[in-house]
Amino acid sequence: MAAQRDLVERASGGDAVAFDTLARTVIDRMYAIAHRVLRDTHLAQDAVQQALWSAWRDLPNLRDPDRFDAWLRSLLVRACYEEARRQRRSPTVTLLATDGPSTPDESSQIADRDALDRAFRRLDPEHRIVIVLHHYEGVPLVEIAESLGIPVGTARSRLHYGLKRLRDALVADAGAGRAEGWIA
Amino acid sequence: MSTRQGGRDGAIDPRIESWLDEGPERAPAQFIDATLAPIPAMAQRRRSLVAFGRMTVTFAALGRLAAAAVLVLAVGLVGLAFRGGLVGHEGPSPSPTSSPSTSLTPLPSGVWYTNNGPFGAGSGIESGRAGTYQTQIFRPALRFTVPAKWSMSQLVRTFVGAEENAVGIPMGNGTGSIVVTIPTSVNPPAPGDLGTPVPPDLVAWLEANPQLALTGPATPVTIGGFSGQEVEGALAADVRLDPAEGYYRPVDFLPLLPRQHVRIAVIRIGPQQLMIATIANADVFEVFRPEADAVIGSFTFPSS
Fold first, then answer.
1. How many CB pairs under 8 A join A and B?
2. B43: left (phi > 0), else alpha (psi -120 to 50), else beta?
3. How do residues A60-96 score in pLDDT, each as one tens digit?
C-alpha cells in the first residue's frame, strides 16, 4: 500500500515511469473487469485505454493518493459506460465455439452460458457493472456505491435486479431446453 | 484494483458465478505496451488553485504572482484571438465552443474535428469511431481518415492556468501508432522546447544521430501533396536513455523505446518541418506498416 502511494504521488508529480509501473500493477484487473462488463475484447481494450489515459491526465487533481484504487475504478466505470453505449449502436453477434460432438452435460452448460450471455448483454451497463464489481471483483456494495456516486440502496437494487434477470434467463432456458429435449 | 476483494454479499447461483469467472484475467502484452507508450508525451491537467492552499504567500510573491497573472492573461487572450482567426479560415463550420457538450463538432462535409482539448470542447481524445477527422487547433490543419478501432489524442504544451497548444497528434490502433508533430527541439530531456533548437535539415540531423540505428539512407516521400524524406530504423544498441523517463527522445514529443521500430518522415510545409513518425514494437511493425500507410495515405492539409 505504501509502495502504491509512493507511485501515485510520483506519477501525480509528472513521473511517467512511476505511472507506467503503477499502471502495470492494475491493468490486468481493469481489463478483466472491463471484459466481463462489455463482453468484447476490443471494447474492453478501448475502455481500459481511455481510463488509464484519463488517469494520467487527471492524476494531479487526485487529492488523496490512498483513494487511487476507487478513483481509478470510477474512471473505468465511466469508460465502460461510454463503450457500452457504442456497443449498443453497433450490436455484435458472438458465436459460441461448439467444435465436435458434445455430451448432454456440456450442451446444458453451453446453453446456460449462452442464456447468461444474452441476458447479460440485455442489461443496462449500470446493472452489469454492479454485478461484475461485486460478484467477480468482490468489491463491497458500499464502495461500489461510492465509486458510482449513487446511494448504497440503489447499488443493492441494481445488483438484485441484474441477478434476477440472469436467474430468470437460466430458468427460461431450462424450460426451453426441456421442451426441445436438450436436458434429460 | 490490483487484487480481488472478498466483500460479496451472500452466494449466487454457481452457474452465474462460474460464468462470471470465465474470461481473460490478463491484458495482452502488446495492448499494455501500446496503451502506456504515449503516456510520457501526454500533458497532465493541473489545477493550479489546489496548490495555492498549501503555500505561504508573501507580499513580494503576491506582486510577482499578479505580474505573472497579467502576462498569462495577455498570452491567453492572444492565443484565443490566434485560434479564433485560424478557425475562421475553416469555412462555414461551427466554432469549437458552439457545442460544449460534445467532444466532436461535425463539419457539413461529414468530417469531424478532433483535438479540441481541455480548453475547447471535449477531452481531446477520440476513440474507435471510423471516419474522417480534421484537427481544429493543431496547425497546419490536418485531415485524415481512420478505420474503426483507431484512437486519436493530442500532444499539448501546457502553461498552467492559461493556453494549451496542440503540438502533435498521436493516433493508433493498439498495434502501433502514428505521431504527427512539429518539433520545437531535439534531444530534449523532457517534453517541450528544452533541448537544442531544431536544425534546418531535420532529416540530415536524424541520419547523423548516433542514438539511432537507421536501416539505410533517407528516401524521398510525398505525403498529402508535400514532398520530403523519410528514414527508418530503431534506437542504437548503446542509446543513452533518459534515466528518469526510460525513453530516448530524438525530438521533444517523440519518446522511443529500445524495443520499437520507427519510420520518420519529414515534409516541409512552408517554413515548418512536419514530422510523421510510424512506431510499433519491432516484432509487429510489418503488420502495422500497411495499416499505417493507409491512414498516412489519406492525409491532406486543407489550409496549406
1. 155
2. beta
3. 888 888 999 989 999 999 889 888 876 654 433 333 3
